[in-house]
Write a structure and sequence with these properties.
The complex is a heterodimer of chains A (425) and B (67). With 425 residues, chain A is an alpha/beta fold. Chain A is built from eight helices and 27 strands. In chain B, strands 1-4 form a two-stranded antiparallel sheet. A two-stranded antiparallel ribbon of chain B has the order 2-3. Chain B is built from two helices and four strands. Classes of the chains: A alpha/beta (425), B alpha+beta (67). Chain B: InterPro entries: Fe-S_cluster_ET.
Chain lengths: 425, 67
């Protein structure tokens, strides 16, 4: 039984079948839609082939744009033999009787369960009665935002994270005036450090997106619909549409009192098993022991969901010894025509080194712990990143990573290409 | 065993190269390319991993069922 019919859930179903599971596989999804791929929702999905997002599609309401599905319905149902139940919400879990509780009071028994209900967009803390406030997590969110962008001149995005940055890029590229409002002084500094955050910010400003850092949104005003966004520095931004991109919260409310231990997500052991017998977790909500450091880790990455779904499924059905989940995290983001790739976990409390020139849109930031490389962030370096992935996986010496990166990305004008900076966060 | 890389889907994430540097390499064009075609049969397991883990589902094993 798999709860959550997105990437982790679908990969779990497939892996279970490929690993030889011949019994029933029930895949339960709260949304009515077939499992779909999320990354395009903040990028190409928001735009129409013409100049403006969602431009003038008269039949768009009757025939809303379709997303890329993760697997065709007949492949899922017939080839993999998955009992796919969509539009079904899990409301609770009885780990003693091993039953899943559904919104219609039905109780479904399971032998093995994989929790893959993902995360939900973090809500704006104050309510507004004005229309025009958007989130972006689900297909329905994306359709609503797409329709709104077709009528938008001024877009305000709250939060300079990956979602906000991707939507800003898409909007700016389609002639919408986009402004990102970020409370931190440097976008993404908590995730990638000051050096990389500063370099990434330049991608926005170079492309014509306005970036306002170190300020907060204090209020919205307008008549029926948001027309202005008020900031803590006293300034007022005109806005037709506001996107809130302030992170995501694990969807674990339905597990309260279930006996499954929670810890900002679902607490897992290194095998992705939860505290309840026969119950595993995968995807955005799975918190597991860090394979290389103290503490625990929860990843909201596409590749993590794909890997964890498959990993949890194999461990759930195996009769042999389970295997530990010890990933090297990988996340990517596409802004304007730039591809940003991050491998490993950046130690933002350690020195990071920038190689290349952010002004050219081609650079790499390397992260170290003591004398070995732990992570890399690369912008428009397709050849470098695969090689860095290997070095990071092997915990290679720092000097090797530096040499490799410098070779693949020689400074445009010697010797100004390299800057080192240290920051405690 | 034949691997097909769909150039319309591949966007050069390099997950395949990370798994099997002797088989795949991302080029300056930002696309994965095969270094050995066909690849040796004893690399089948890692190639199947690459097919499974490709973020854009751009890889396909020709003699495997569609995935």
């Amino acid at each position: 039984m798999i709860v959550g019919a997105s990437l982790a859930g679908v990969r779990a179903a497939r892996a279970a079948r490929h690993a030889g599971h011949t019994g029933t596989i029930i895949l339960i999804g709260a949304e009515e839609h077939l499992p779909y791929d999320r990354p395009p929702l903040s990028k190409t999905f928001l735009t129409h082939s013409s100049d403006h997002p969602a431009a003038h599609e008269p039949d768009e309401q009757a025939h809303p744009p379709a997303p890329a599905v993760l697997m065709a319905e007949d492949e899922l149902r017939d080839d993999l033999g998955v009992d796919l139940r969509l539009g079904v919400t899990a409301t609770g879990l009885d780990t003693d009787s091993r039953e899943l509780l559904l919104h219609d009071q039905q109780r479904l028994p399971y032998d093995r369960l994989i929790i893959a209900t993902g995360a939900t967009a973090r809500r704006w803390p104050t309510t507004t009665h004005l229309a025009g406030l958007h989130y972006l997590r689900t297909l329905d969110d994306a359709r609503a935002l797409r329709a709104a962008l077709a009528r938008t001149t001024n877009l305000v995005i709250i939060g300079a994270g990956f979602i906000g940055s991707e939507v800003a890029a898409t909007a700016t590229q389609h002639g919408i005036h986009a402004t990102i409002v970020e409370t931190q002084d440097t976008p993404l500094a908590h995730a990638v450090g000051q050096t990389a955050g500063t370099a990434l910010a330049r991608l926005h400003t170079q492309a014509g997106t306005t970036l306002k850092c170190g300020v907060q949104v204090t209020d919205f005003s307008g008549t029926g619909h948001i027309e202005q966004v008020h900031l803590s520095d006293g300034s007022v931004l005109p806005a037709d549409t506001v996107l809130v991109g302030i992170g995501a919260v694990p969807t674990t409310g339905w597990l309260t009192d279930s006996g499954v231990a929670l810890d900002d997500g679902v607490a897992c052991d290194p095998y992705l098993a939860t505290s309840a017998p026969g119950v595993y977790a995968a995807g955005d909500l799975a918190r597991f022991p860090h394979p290389r450091r103290e503490g625990t880790l929860r990843l909201e990455h596409w590749t993590a969901a794909a890997e964890q779904g498959a990993h949890a499924a194999r461990n759930a059905i195996t009769t042999a010894a389970p295997t530990r989940y010890e990933p090297v995290p990988y996340v990517w983001s596409d802004w304007y025509s730039h591809r940003i790739q991050i491998i490993g976990d950046p130690h933002t409390d350690q020195p990071s080194t920038l190689i290349g020139d952010p002004d050219t849109g081609q650079f790499t930031v390397l992260y170290r712990h003591n004398n070995h490389i732990t992570a890399a962030l690369a912008v428009n370096q397709p050849r470098a990143i695969a090689k860095l992935r290997r070095l990071i996986t092997q915990k290679a010496p720092w000097a090797d990573a530096l040499t490799q990166t410098t070779t693949l990305n020689p400074p445009a004008t010697p010797p100004a290409g390299s800057r080192t900076e240290s920051r405690a966060t | 065993m034949n691997i097909h890389i769909d150039p319309d889907r591949c966007t050069g994430h390099g997950v395949c190269e990370g798994l099997a540097e002797d088989i795949f390499e991302v080029g300056d064009d930002g696309l994965a390319h095969l270094l050995q075609d066909p690849p040796p049969n004893d690399r089948r397991e890692v190639i199947e991993q690459a097919v499974q883990q490709c973020p854009t589902l751009a890889l396909r094993l020709a003699d495997a069922p569609p995935s």
